[in-house]
Automatic annotation (TrEMBL):
InterPro entries (UniProt xref): Alpha/beta_knot_MTases (IPR029028), tRNA_m1G_MeTrfase_C_sf (IPR023148), tRNA_m1G_MeTrfase_TrmD (IPR002649), tRNA_m1G_MTases_N (IPR029026), tRNA_MeTrfase_TRMD/TRM10 (IPR016009)
GO molecular function: tRNA (guanine(37)-N1)-methyltransferase activity
Pfam families in the record: tRNA_m1G_MT (PF01746)
Location of the region described as Disordered in the Swiss-Prot/TrEMBL record: 258-289
Enzyme class name: transferase
Entry similarity comment: Belongs to the RNA methyltransferase TrmD family.
EC number: 2.1.1.228
All residue ranges annotated as the tRNA methyltransferase TRMD/TRM10-type domain in the record: 31-254
UniProt gene name: trmD
Name used for this protein in its record: tRNA (guanine-N(1)-)-methyltransferase
Subunit relationships: Homodimer.
Length: 289
């Protein structure tokens, strides 16, 4: 197991190898089962997530699947039962890797990054950030034997309706979206409140932003933003957020509009977060307005 971003040494009683690598204790931890441990930390080692990793605000451990392979060649996969193309990761091999991950934290959910999974949402990232961490399975080949997914109560999560070569990039997306929500990782927590999908933004996309110079290549900043009238600026931003959401994401718009009219009918109720930000409601195709 490789550990990235380390502050303090934590001894391990694991017999498989002498764990000399220091790890940060009691912080949000991502454990990643992968055939390509060298792909980590990748982009997560840079910028805010990288700084936070070095500061020990979160922890990253890779669990190289190959180490659990069988035979002289440390095989991790075999042909699919029932025939067909490609190879499937063996249940016994994945089971050994997941047992290793569970030694670190038995409470963390286990997620298999897969185009077949439920879509990743801001709400899910928020929930994960509040927990102890996550164990992520990065697939290659045709998939993973279903029995080991069932045995470990593994949830499948997708980062979008397209197919990647493997789960490593998807895992980095999930970790990035989650780690930035851990307190003290983002320098300015205010920026979280208004961004797209945030609770403060009530499930709408974020309004456009401008900065100096006031004139650029004949284009001007909308006058209201220079007016100093905070109420007018707030109204403009709300209207722009609504316009963009309606144009680009009819699914989010419909959920927001439904929640708004429900709130209008019941003055004790505030508008709720949109359905598309809530993993539990599942995926809905955008509809034409
Ligand atoms: N692995 C391959 N494609 C993926 C996707 N769209 N989301 C998550 N993991 C994947």
């Amino acid at each position: 197991m490789k550990s990235h971003g380390r502050l303090t040494a934590k001894p391990s009683l694991r017999p498989r190898e002498l764990m000399t690598e220091p790890q940060v204790k009691d912080v949000w931890t991502a454990r990643i089962v992968t055939l390509f441990p060298e792909a980590f930390p990748g982009i997560l080692g840079l910028s805010l997530t990288g700084k936070a990793l070095a500061q020990g605000l979160w922890n990253l451990q890779t669990i190289p699947l190959r180490e659990f392979g069988v035979g002289r060649h440390r095989n991790v996969d075999d042909t699919p039962a029932g025939g067909g193309a490609g190879m499937v990761i063996r249940a016994d091999v994945m089971d050994a890797a997941l047992r290793e991950a569970k030694q670190g934290s038995s409470a963390a959910p286990v997620i298999y990054m897969s185009p077949r999974g439920r879509p990743l949402t801001q709400a899910r990232a928020r929930a994960l950030a509040e927990g102890p961490g996550v164990t992520l399975i990065c697939g290659r080949f045709e998939g993973v034997d279903q029995r080991v997914l069932d045995a470990h109560d593994v949830e499948e999560v997708s980062i979008g309706d397209y197919v990647l070569t493997g789960g490593e990039i998807a895992a980095q997306v999930l970790i990035d979206a989650t780690v930035r929500l851990i307190p003290r990782v983002l320098g300015n927590q205010d920026s979280l409140a208004e961004e797209s999908f945030s609770i403060g933004n009530r499930g709408l996309l974020e309004h456009p932003q401008y900065t100096k110079p006031a004139q650029w290549e004949g284009r001007e900043i909308p006058e209201v933003l220079l007016s100093g009238n905070h109420a007018a600026i707030s109204d403009w931003r709300q209207a722009e957020a609504e316009r963009l959401t309606k144009e680009r994401r009819p699914d989010l718009w419909r959920a927001w509009a439904d929640a708004s009219s429900a709130a209008d009918m019941d003055p004790t109720k505030d508008r709720q977060l949109s359905g598309a930000s809530d993993q539990s409601r599942g995926h809905r195709e955008p509809e034409k307005e």
